[in-house]
């Protein structure tokens, strides 16, 4: 669990790290829209090219990014199996006797399983890149700034941004706490790796109870610390560090708009391959 990259900040001096958090949030939204609009591998290839370009400018190792896939590996495999064996239509790639016909894979099923898996990979890697290059505080400030118009209808923008910031900060903390609890249980003779699937799930129950207790204790301590510092929400609250746009943000905006226009162009003029 320590290898999961989502929610963890990777400090570096790079072009992407110096971008305004609002720019990175908006770029991620445009990137997600482009990935979902793409209905063929040409469009996904363009999204992947932009992603790898951003990864190079962020100076984050690919191995560190790939760790974020561990959280969705089961979902990825499950989705691929469903599409391989239950997608209707297409030409069978091989033949089997009648009792085993349900195991036949068609060319359309293989295409859609590969396409959906690639789309999910790009979504997870793109989201992880945002949290790896943006501190939780900057991310919360960016969300609060983007949602400022909702204050006109008395929406608690600052409180929502604070909740998101705390949630992102607690992800690596709870991950480390889970590792410590598992090591303590292993020292007492607990076995989490042997047995069938249901037995291994049952063996995790002694971890969940102390983890929940630890989470509630940390939340209570955080609340006391905020009360001790006279935290009063968004009223008459100023910012120590103000967000400003620069030339990097303008360049990122051009890349994002270019990506979206390119995907829409491919969607109109090429269509799906299958």
Tags for this model:
274 residues, mainly alpha, 0% strand, single chain, 2 domains, 65% helix, 10 helices
Q: Which residues form runs of ≥5 with pLDDT under 50?
A: none
Mean pLDDT: 81
- What is the total tally of β strands? 0
Largest sheet: none
- Rg for CA atoms: 23 Å
| Percent helix range | 55-70%
Helix-strand sequence: HHHHHHHHHH
The fraction of residues assigned to DSSP E strands is under 5%
| Total domains | 2
| Gross geometry | flat
Count of alpha/pi helices: 10
How far is the N terminus from the C terminus? 38 Å
**Helix-strand category:** mainly alpha
Description:
By secondary structure, this protein is mainly alpha-helical. The chain folds into two domains: 1-156 and 244-274, no CATH class; 172-233, no CATH class. 65% of the residues lie in helices and 0% in strands. It has ten helices and no strands. The chain has helices at 21-37, 41-58, 62-66, 73-86, 107-133, 136-146, 157-187, 197-203, 205-228, 247-269. Helix 4 (73-86) runs antiparallel to helix 5. The radius of gyration is 23 Å and the shape is flat. The protein starts with 20 loop residues before the first helix and ends in a 5-residue tail after the last helix. The model has no long low-confidence stretch (mean pLDDT 81).
